[in-house]
Amino acid sequence: MDLISALQFLRLDEIPEAWVEAVWDLEFTEGKPLDDTIEEELAAWPVFLGQKLLLRHQVPPFQHEENPRESIWTILGDNGVSIRSLVAVLSVFVQAGKAKGANVQQRVNGLYAASLYLLLLGIPGSIANKVFHEVLLDTCSDLTSHCWPQDSGKKRKKDSLKSSQADGKRSKPQRKDAREMKMDDAEEEEEEEEYHFSGQDLMKMRDAVTFLVQSLLRLLQTFPLKDRPHSASNCIRIFSKLLYFEPVIGELTFAAERDVAKLRTVPEMAFYGLQLLCSPKHGDQKESLQTLFHRLLYVILMMNKGNSRKPSLLVPNQANLATRDQAIQFVCYLVGELKELALPVLQILLQHICFQMVEKNEYRTHGAQAVGMLTSRMANTDYACFIKWLFKFSRNSKMVHRLFSIDVVMVLLEQQERTEEYQDPELSCFLPHKFLIQNLLFARRVDESPTVQGHALACLAQCLELPSLNITRAVHTLFSATPAVTVRETSECHLKDFCHRCWAAFCTHVQELVACSYFLEMLLLHCIYILKAAKENLALLLRRAKNSKTNVRKSALQALLGLLKHGVIPMSCENLGTLSERCRDPAVSVKKKALQCVGELLAAKPECREVQKVWLQGVVPAVVDSENSVQDKALEALDQVLLSQIKPYSASSHMSVSQRLTWDLLDLLCNECQNLSQYFSRAFTMWSKQNKFTSAFVTNLVSHTEADHAAGAWLLLSKVVTSSHKVPYGKILDTWDTMDVNVTTCCHILCVIGDIAAHLNEDTKDRIVADLMSWLKTFTLSLEVISAAVETLYQLGKNEDIKQTQAFLDQHCGDLVSVCEAYLANIILSENGTQNLNEEMMVKYLHTLGVASLHCPTKVGKRTVLLVESVLTTHSDKLPASLPLSQFKANSLPTRVRAHGVITLGKMCLQDEELVHRYLPVFARELEVGTEVAVRNNVVVIMCDMCVRYTNIVDHYIPNISACLRDSDAVIREQTLIMLTNLLQEEFVKWKGSLFFRFMVALVDPDPAIASLCEYCLLHLLLKKTPEMFSQHFIECIFHFNSYNKHSSYNKFPQTEREKVQFSLKGAQHREKRFRIYHFLLEHFTDAQRFNITNKINQTILACFADEELPLDADGAEILSETFSILSLKEMKVQAILTPAGEEPEEENMATMAKAVLQAAQKKVVSQVQKKAFMENTVPLIISLKNLLEEKRSPVLKDLMAYLQVKMQDYRNEVKEFFSGDEQLAAEVEFALKMSEREREVQKQMENCSLTEKTKTPPAQRSQLCLPESCAHVTYHLCPKPIKYTSVIHTVCIHICVYSMYSLCLGEAFCGKWNVQSPLRQKKRSSRV
């Protein structure tokens, strides 16, 4: 059957001519119904036609010969086939297949009919025979998007979207506008009506789609679209959508000429079609590239442009990522083929990728990789132009743009550095990696957005891991001196010496420079600047580690770790201390990051003693962290570094680095880090519950007790012996018999003996007890060993029968008490006993007496107490409670002996309540008038210990203890703060009386360490227990710190005159301290507390002055003035109505939009409530107070107006409404607001016009561009001789050069033309951050 026979089935001669004309008149925009009979007859035809079309290559007219013997148009005309009718009938099938409810056959028929139309159109003479119609061409070309079922794809997409949401909240779907939501609803309704296609149906349609795309490619090979730009643009859009049709089999390749029949997948055909559309016969190549790259932009960004104005994100699954990679390869291929023609458009594509990037990390990463791949195809000139543009882009006002510029820099740094010499000096500076690091990456460390700051610091740490030596040198330059100047020379003395040496060298060898001495000055300034800039950069990094934002602190720690690991900065106490300090950060994530950093640093520098200390100081205390996950991380680190490295000891074997590290760390715990012992013990308590210590582990430990590092082995044994069931007691006892070790190890051995005492026989116990008693009675042991020995004695005598245990203790400890009593009596009761006193021996006797008395209180008689009392005074009679110890006749005993006497007396009091009543007033008085620091410090300790045992008795003396928060000695203030915090935590002490206000005074302690400790105690220990604590005491703080007691309700708790003076912050000289306290309290208020405290201030302060309940005297004026200043603080504003700092995220999804809507509603409601409360409660009081202050001519009136000026900034246009009852006040407020705005404008203009500001180079660029102006005077102090030829003109020249170079870097970057304009041209302005 030939073609004509196949076309006869269409019965074109029976088609009414009117119907054909009507279809053509409708421009093929809608279907025109045919006669029902004709439609039924035509229904079966396309099957045969399809079979016929499959044999199209056998039909000569369909072959693309230049001079066919007989035209197809002649054949059709000779056989009476109407072209217009044929096209009209084909459009019927196309419209039917395009319909939403079309079945499989209709869709296949429509696709084949569209293919036939495209084939006809591609035959020479189609234009002359009026086959071409632009609308029908576009409809047939785009028929795939209508015929291929989209429901399955949508469902898969939704499923994958849900799965991505499960991975993290940043993968949520994008917000849809109302139009998109309506479209989605309509699509859901249509999906219910659509057919469910089988696999066989999909294969049929896929074959038809493939045939249609091949037909379109054949059309583009012969049919030029140069005069039809709309159709060419439409084809680009269609092919761009087909890139997602199916995965590509094998590796995708591109070539100029390809056989369409050999293309296996639709995406391959689509790429070939896009390639054809870039040829000159389809229009201007540059415009075609612009349109094509604009479409591929969204493929690279993994976005779906659709018909909506704002593109939506695609799920970054494997299929979309593969399509994105193929699109990038295709762009690189086109750039390689078209070269100079494509490079300007590539620049614009790169700019649009940067401008349209979203904030999500995954998309930014893929986008940066795309930029890196595309820039790799650029020559040095174009690459430098792009870097110049990127430099300006990195200062864009949008946070996401600055963030993405950092990602791009990191990708570019992974590429090979462009070292080829460059002719253009204006662009050559942009080629080195050093420019990327110092001017783009490191410049963002001072960004206004914490997110950008953190990302820049994290990437800076990654730079040091890159293999490039130039990158490492660039980072070294930022934080250390040049190779000629080491880090140690950064101190001022070394800096001065270095400059002297430079001067001497130049004077000796380069006499010619004397005439041009300003060059020497510039050189010296440059050297000075490099050294100082490195110091400032490090200081800034350390400050970032304490930033208020969590992610900034984490990134700063990562950067600090990298600098320390690679030796860029020294292992100083300050640098390492920052890491250990952040292990106690308030944020859990920062604590974990810090633990990870100290672990990595220890792994990199295992032999560094300072690093070992920092690791212990950071990890060991974390085992008692309030967060379980931090505890687990710390325990895991300790287990990995310490426990897992305990192997059997052999003198002949060599220990590995990790084993050596383990024993070095244990040695530190035994010596320099003994303060970590309690935390270390807590770790073993947790491990014991996990049955972690096996008999093999203990045996391995015991084997190390004979090695050089035996101290560490005994430390571990003292912790694990109680948790192990099988212990080699014999080896431990052998060590006991031959013990000759230091104090710390001796304490650990005694602890081990006490732990295994229950497993020893009676003979062994008696032998050890005898040894202990003989040692104790010699009083040659250290204080630590005495305490450990008495505790071991208790463990050896411990019995199930409590009476037997007490009898044992009474016998042995009582013996010790008797010996100590006899010694004290010999010293104190003898007339010349104190003349030849051995202070060390006296301390040991007192300490032994105190330790032993705790175990045998019945053996402590009145004579013993009086003897200890006599250590403090010369009196043996009962001390009057009204007099302090120091007011009795002074004895000749040293302060150290008296301090230990206080501790011993306190231990006796803990066992006898009568002694507490007797000596507690004496201790309290000693705190008040005592002069010896050690004595008063120990008095604080024993009084707080008594508070735990005798809470009700000591409660009356809490004011005496808290008064030590203003002690003259910092040690006592710190000790008191710690002890009171512990008592408040355990609720042995309540927030009564003046205790809260004394804690507030500690916040402004002259010692910054104590002030910081107080802040930590209040925020992280006490506020969690009492959340309303700050708001409950805030108003009373105003009266208390100003020593104002005329109010009927506030500042009425009892205080002595001495305490009032001691804790008073009254007066202008203490105003700054008072407001530091107010700021601290208000910063940690909730919005509800801020709102309530404002109303309470109105009622209790402003109303009292307005009603003249409180006199407006000098003290009252100070209170009222301070109240207005407090109300003007920004911390008093409800945070819900404040605009958060920084930019809003660029992306919008369901969660962020819901949150934004909720915040907007909350802000509106809160603002209305606050406005109503201000009008009803505050405004009447303000008007009354203003009239009163004017009447009394009080200077507080200016504070009232200042408050109104601040308050009315939020209600700028409602002043008259607020003060409708006082027109004069309304006019004054409006005038004040206008004057304030004018002052701000003038100040802003002055700053903009300042020469210093204009010529000031941003911090990130100074090291590359110029010398700092602030260094201009330094040379004269550092040089041995003054430079005669230096003048102000030279300095001005330097400024001009600097400004010129800086302008060069910020100059107008390259911007090509897009069909929708370049991004920079779209923006009216781009503010520099």
UniProtKB/TrEMBL annotation:
GO biological process: cell division; meiotic chromosome condensation; mitotic chromosome condensation
MF (Gene Ontology): histone binding
Region (Disordered): 148-197
Record keyword 4Fe-4S present: no
One Gene Ontology cellular component: condensin complex
Condensin complex subunit 1 C-terminal domain mapped to chain residues: 935-1101
Gene3D superfamilies referenced in this protein's UniProt entry, alphabetically: Leucine-rich Repeat Variant
Keyword entries, A-Z: Cell cycle, Cell division, DNA condensation, Mitosis, Nucleus
Main location: nucleus
Biased segments, Acidic residues type: 185-194
Cell location: Nucleus
Compositional bias segments (type: Basic and acidic residues): 167-184
Primary role: Regulatory subunit of the condensin-2 complex, a complex which establishes mitotic chromosome architecture and is involved in physical rigidity of the chromatid axis.
Assembly description: Component of the condensin-2 complex.
Name of the protein: Condensin-2 complex subunit D3
Naturally occurring in which organism (per UniProt): Acanthochromis polyacanthus
Upper taxonomic lineage: Eukaryota, Metazoa, Chordata, Craniata, Vertebrata
